[in-house]
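Revision sheet: structure tokens.
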Amino acid sequence: MKSNMTDMTSGSPAKHILLFALPTLIGNIFQQVYNLADSIIVGRFVGKDAFAAIGATGSITFLFFALCNGIGGGGGIIVSQYYGAHDDEHVKKCIFNTGIIMLIAPLIFGLTGFLLAPALLTVLGTPETIMNDSVMYIRYMCFGLLFVSLYNFISSVLKALGDSKTPLLFLIISTIINIILDILFVCYFKLGIAGAAIATVVSQMLSALLCGIFAFLTNPYFKFRNDNIHFNPHMCYRIIRLGVPLSLQFGLIAISSMAVQKIVNSFGTIVVAAFTATNRIEQLIHQPYTTLGSSLSTYSGQNFGAGRNDRVYKGYKTGVWMMGILTVVLFISMQLLGRFITSLFVEDTEVIRLGAMGLRITSYFYFTLGMIYVVRGVLTGIGDALFQLINGIVEVIGRFTVPILMTKYMGFGSSGIWISAGIVWAISAFTAWLRYYSFFKKKHILKKETQA
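Predicted:
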């Protein structure tokens, strides 16, 4: 079998970034399609209470997944740097030690989530009518945390080695299996919310096992010798030092999202419905930006590890113009089609009007949203994970304060919800760019490019 690894330290930056990004984008879209299908199956065949129970657990399960996956992402960053430096020995050592951490961390977090599920749901004010289903769903997800973490660990390593095709293959397989099992367990076996949870855990287990076996058979870096298989405290420290800030950043975003939701809820059902519709649409809008950021992270990591800071800077410039073209397309689409797209989710005319207005408002800020992903992608690749946390804190502070300012004190009412989202994107993008600019100015890359 042939490996799909790509060395990005030579050749066209645009070609590398595009070819790496396309499979990742397709995978992200597949994931969104699954999430939509899963919601429809549970909502239609089990009922609104089960649908609400899954929704009530979202921020909690996301928090535990983020804590594990952020650590795996830290290992991926180091792998990309060693791979770019052509240090094969340390690539294998990093993969093995990250694997050890990704076996231990999900067991700890999974057990914590299993035991604390009732308490966490109570703190969030989960209605009693859905409490039992919510506790059960979280506990099933805690069983699956190990498999999710292992798949994302293998996926992160493969992407760090320039292979975005293999993770796509097994994400598609997992999505198809999950939908089939959802239909089987929920619609035919009538297992309710437990059936949806079991379907998710089984599909995650299969994707982790199959992806791991395939990586072992096709990728030489997953074939370990005796001298690769030993615990390295210093390596583990590096992995955790990079991974923990990424984990905390995602965790803080999850908490701040709950704060925004509380403000949205205060405006009543119509605004909540409109916000929910625009939120789902913007999850799709985020996907190409997310993909571009992931591509830049791998590209930057390999070239930074190879000591090619000039190519890191060229990758950044390539990412900016790609993001610019994408932003223009998305802006025009939301300005012209915002009302139609919102109507796909709901039929209420007032909800459609508010949703379309929200999409038009936030579309003016898409450039700053894109800059967040471009700059964070580059900074992640060069190992600046601490700033990722700092930038995440800036975004969280903005999410807590700006919506209140816009909706309560500036007189914008419910439209201030969407205005504040754009303002927070702009603040986060600006602080990220300042950090990026200071790094490359210190390395004298910007000066050399100007003189050239």
